[in-house]
Amino acid sequence: MLEIRAASKTFNPGTPNELLALQAVNLTVNDGSFVVIIGTNGSGKSTLLNAVAGSFCLDSGAIFLAGADITKWPEHKRAKLIGRVFQNPFSGTAANMSIAENLALAAYRGKPRRLGWPLRKHLVSQLRDRVSQLNMGLEDRLKNPIGSLSGGQRQALTLLMATWLHPEVLLLDEHTAALDPKSADQVTALTDTIIRRDKLTTLMVTHSMQQAAYLGDRLVMMHRGRIIQDFHGAEKQRIRMDDLLARFEEVRAPNYSTRAPPRCCAACISDKPSSIIIAPTQAK
Q1: What is the pLDDT of residues 173-220, one digit of tens each?
Q2: Alpha helix locations (H) across 43-86?
Q3: Is residue 259 situated within a structural domain?
Q4: What is the pLDDT of residues 95-137, one digit of tens each?
Q5: If I label 224, which of 47, 71, 106, 150 is the partner at 20 to 30 A Cα–Cα?
Q6: Domain at 80, CATH number
Q7: Is residue 112 part of a domain?
Q8: In whole angstroms, how far apart are CA 138 and each of 90, 128, 251?
Q9: How far apart are CA 56 and CA 166, in angstroms?
Q10: Which whole-number Å values give the CA distances from 58 to 51, 74, 123, in the listed order?
């Protein structure tokens, strides 16, 4: 579904602020795979998502989505294929518009636009049905401005908008990081439910070791613009938080080199499944 070939990006080249954000990154994601991306600060996690979304042009490399070469596509053209949820709960919605009007924008995304009343009866009924599935009691508040809601409610609606038309790929950039623990747990559970139900191909950036260990079917670790670890299948299922924390300490060492072959953590060689119970998602 998604193929990133030798993607490289340097910001502010030739200046004291030069940053090698992506260094020949290669990543192939199968249809329906849920990939969690972790890494140290400045490792290139969000930059990788922005590259897929088209927020900037790559210096070199290529990106293919659903069989199409989208490397040169502008961001608005890619948006027809991509759903996206940002870290800031207020980035994905129009505050002064109602809940129903925001959702209508998502429902009509990529379709021909014409003059007319968007909130037709059949659409309002559909909106009410989908919002009720959030279990937040918002189905009877569709006329309320979305800006009057809490951050957690708004982020849940943003997630609903981003997945309304079943995008080819869903990008989640630390979408629970700005929420309180209870709201973060609700949005995380909703995220997992929607992705599993609709079999959405997903890239999710997170700093939460809890989410990294227990969400998704694949885990990618980045450092200094490179992918240094890629767990999937049985390896991913055996990963524990302690393994990830130990790996983080290893890559933070001053003499660590991203060019060296990645060392497997304990989860790779252990035959014993993890016995840790899922705790609040905000645990780091």
Answers
A1: 999 998 899 999 999 999 999 999 999 999 999 988 888 888 999 999
A2: 45-53, 75-78
A3: yes
A4: 888 998 898 888 877 666 666 666 676 778 888 888 988 888 8
A5: 71
A6: 3.40.50.300
A7: no
A8: 17, 8, 44
A9: 24
A10: 7, 12, 39
Q: Which of 69-73, 143-147, 264-268 has the highest mean pLDDT?
A: 69-73
DSSP state at residue 164: T
Neighbours of 201 (CB within 10 A): 20
Distances (CA, A) of 260 to 211, 226, 232, 256: 27, 11, 20, 8
In this structure, the strands spanning 68-69 and 60-65 are antiparallel
- Contact present, 208 and 176 (Cβ < 8 Å): yes
pLDDT at 268 over 70: no
- Strand partners for 34: 202
Q: Which residues contact 114 (CB under 8 A, 6 or more apart)?
A: none
Could you tell me if residue 40 is inside a domain? Answer: yes
